Amino acid sequence: MSEPTANPHHVVGPKVYLAIGGTLLLLTGATTAISFVELGVFNAVVALAIAVIKAMLVVLFFMHIRYSSKLLKLTVAAGFFTFLVLISMVMTDYISRAWGLW
């Protein structure tokens, strides 16, 4: 009988790590390249989209969330949801201020 808290470890080969590492390097180069292109207000949007993709790859593969239990995936999702709620509350306060009108 195994322990109820025991979790079989998923072994990830070095090819996966090299592929993810190469993808992160390519996305870093894409971030740098896109900074030289004039997109107006979309410069920040594109840079943040690339950053979110890179963060997702790091969390899923290097932190082994992709191969973890559903409870751990739910915990990570709850953390991201809490982060989004806090950021939206801060942005609501920031947008509602009358900057420069006092």
TrEMBL record:
InterPro entries: Caa3_sub_IV, Cyt_c_oxidase_su4_prok. The chain crosses the membrane at residues 16-36, 42-62, 74-95. Keywords: Cell membrane, Membrane, Transmembrane, Transmembrane helix. GO terms for cellular component: plasma membrane. It is a multi-pass membrane protein. The keyword Cell membrane applies. The keyword Membrane applies. It is found in: Cell membrane. This is Cytochrome c oxidase subunit 4. It comes from Acidipila rosea. The lineage of its organism: Bacteria, Pseudomonadati, Acidobacteriota, Terriglobia, Terriglobales.
